[in-house]
Amino acid sequence: MAGNAEASSSGETGKTTSGSFKHIGNKMKRTELYRKYKAEKAKAKFARRSAQAKEERGEDGAAKKAARLAANKTRTIENTRDFNPTIINAPNTHEGPGSSNLKAGNSDDDDGSDAGEEQTMMQEEQEAAEEVDDDEDPSAPPAILITTSMPSSSTSPHLESLNARSHPAEKTRQFVYELLSVFPGAEYRPRAKAQGVGLGKICGWARERRFGAVLVVGESRKEPFALTLIQLPHGPTAFFRLTSIRTADEIYGKAHPTPHTPELILNNFTTVLGHRVGTVLQSLFPKIPQLEGRQVVTCHNQRDYIFFRRHRYMFKSDSKTALQEIGPRFTLKLHSLKESLPKGAGVWDGKYTEEYAELEPEELEALQAQNGDEEAAAAAAAGAGGEAGGEQKVAEASAASSSSSKKKRQHGEEETVGLDFQWKPKMSVSRRNFYL
Fold it and tell me: Looking at domain 144-353, which of 3.40.50.10480, 3.20.20.70, 3.40.605.10, 1.10.340.30 is its CATH number?
């Protein structure tokens, strides 16, 4: 018995260092030892932090603190992001002279060609300036046409008439009314009045009436699903997936909107594609906001998700201010972008496929494993088959793409040829590549 007691006590003291007391059957004793362990651990941590702070307050303390912070930098998805050559704000870390030095060292022929290009650019700027109306008010909100997508017979097969299916659901109508409060120059036209006309003709009709943009709210399962933004008169057309919608009624402590045009803040759009998307969003707001309304719209890009928020400044004093959310709030994710206007019946107008749905965590893990297996199989096939196998695969891929294009033309769907950007589910496998 004495030997067992000694073994138990030695086991208890050994387990104290690791913080596990599961081997102790007595609950009160186990709780007491765990409290002592936590107290000793907190005391040691406090002593270590105090000594560290005292050392950093002494001689060369600033350098020691900077070295400690640099060594203990947290690894996040943002700071471990793969380098994207299209990032505009990225510094030039490559060896050799920069672009300005290369231009300075060009020959006389290059100088002549540069002068010709500059003259052409100046002429284009003058022509663009002539097209701008002098009477246009920069503080006036742009005219925006808001409508809904083409209804699908799969959601309401009992309704044979297209106009009968053109009436959106209640949640979609409520979201449209929220957009009307965000854009004072917006106008809503029900899709039922279009009499089955496609989105291309609607854009032509809006262009003749000098609308600046067209917003199409896509509906799926009686809820807002997507948002298509068309910039008139010539494009581009951006298709966004719409998630995490919360209307103003669902926001606690919300503020009431006013008809003032808000200020726009675009945050973290760093790549060339991100600047294009930011320009499209900027076209929905006037050049000069009405600051007396104290309203601000923020489009914050983080990991290719665009978070839309609208607030109002509350000035408590000359030096302090607060933000009160007005609503709505929602999240956008760019799925496709093309330079021209939409044509045909595609995803721009309500024909959605499974590839535009967000992936679940289980599906994402399966896709990651599948992607790794495909890469390994491709590497093995390349080493074993040689050039002949590669040529055969290229021929099979081209034949499959041609047959797919033929089927799309037969069904009247819009082909994805000419898209500047198209999101695919495999892009979510690697969390180190971001495009905006």
Answer: 3.40.50.10480
